[in-house]
Fold this sequence. Notes:
Distance between the termini: 50 Å
Number of strands: 18
Largest sheet: 5 strands, parallel
Amino acid sequence: MSKILAAVAWPYANGPRHIGHVSGFGVPSDVFARYQRMIGNDVLMVSGSDEHGTAIQVQADREGLTPQQTADKYHSIICEELQQLGLTYDLFTRTTTNNHCEVVQELFRALHANGYVVPHKGMGAISPSTGRTLPDRYIEGTCPLCKSEDARGDQCNSCGKQLDPIDLINPRSSLDGEVPEFVETEHFFLDLPALAQTLRTWLDTRQDWRPNVLNFSLELLKDLKPRGITRDLDWGIRVPIDGWRDNPMKSIYVWFDAVIGYLSASIEWALRQGDPQAWREWWQNPEAQSYYFLGKDNITFHSVIWPGILLGANGQGDRGGEPSTFGELNLPTEVVSSEFLMMGGGKFSTSYNRVIYVRDFLKEFGPDALRYYIAVAGPENTDTVFTWEEFVRRINTELANEWGNLVNRSISMAHKNNGVIPTPGELTEIDTRVLDTARQGFEVVGDLLSKAKFKAAITEAMRVASAANRYLSETEPWKLKDNPTRRDTVLHTTLQVVSDVNTMLTPFLPHACQKVYEALGGTGVWAAQPEIRHVSEDGQDPYPILTGDYDSQLAFWKSIPVEVGRVLNKPEPLFPKLDESLGETGPSWAPISVDG
């Protein structure tokens, strides 16, 4: 049994999530975690709401709330959305906990003591109208290198180069379009050049990463510069250095803060399990594996900056040093980055009204329709455009007609003729062929899932479902009334393949697969679901977290013989067909615009 850390990108607590968000960090991580649990590995899946920084302050100002009230509001909403989507976090927490603050400050101190965090004076951007500091990511302009017009103050999304806001041509605030003023300020910087050689040596060992992630990361190493990790902002974690810790307008930069959340959430999980040292099995065990799930705009922070932080805190950069009080920590095994899910010719964006909110989607179509679409047609390796037409086609043709129809007609026929799983007679070549196809699917689909190739994996699982449909059409059990032994053999064979495909689809469609398991006469929890619990810290007000009991679920990655004589339950339609007109108009809450 291997220890598998599934580290999932932290969503900002400044609003509800849209489907572009969960296509990157949400569904892929859960599919992977569910599969790893099914093959018997010990999974720790952690994340939480990212609650510090200017994004929260800006939203608080818009709503007339304090930053803490804003974080509380949207953390609760995000927990509900992710729970309904069925994301099996062992702990989904938040960055405003005391535990997180202490872990961040300890790594900051270790980096500072080892010489990888250094003070530096530079020019910082402020808003002329408010006097507030504008973080790098809230400044847009033209890249001085590739001349792309949508560069940000921290990096160019086109060429990937690290930038400073003052480098941009025609800089402007993304909040209100103002031209920022630049004033001298002092901050601490992560000295990435002092970690570059060690990062290069480590990245050279990551040859099995997705090519887009590895190539992008290696390109970044060619032009590494020190990166600011503090900001002039009062909403954030204090800087734990003499002369700084009592300054309310100096905070640790939100991205330095957030990536450390993978470690702090693991530590919090262990504390809540009553075994404070349990996290070390995933962070210090040399056999443990860690997979980070995110969208491509966050590759920089997970393939270079976070490994750089870990190396520096371990004392493993050019300047050496001693490990932090947490000891030597593991670097990522793989960074599983998705591309962008697009809509209407651009990224999903609340500011440009290109958005489909998760909560609206789930209310009308349920979680598994979204999970399926993201897995089979999502942005795994390339940017993908979401269209309602493609969504309707996929659900009707594949989920309703192919899989749902197979389940319904096979179980319904057996239920009508036998009431139970029938006893098979002697198998013929056509029977053994479809059974072999299903059994072989476990190895093929499993291998693809282990390599985070979700689109190929679900396509292969659906191929087995198609084989079962062809088998039914060729054997025609509905015409075998006068040959009940042969009819029962065909139905038993079909139900076995349905059970096998249901197992293979469980990481993708856990809610529907629970229903199929029950229709086949199964009892108990086949595919466990996360739950919201309210917890407190140091006597403070309770807050929601996501967690769950996943060890007791019955789903395992193997072909389980269907039990002759088990009473069947009449199935209900898994995926009702959608009105074709939806593909032309979209739903009322996300209509298709006239210009497409």
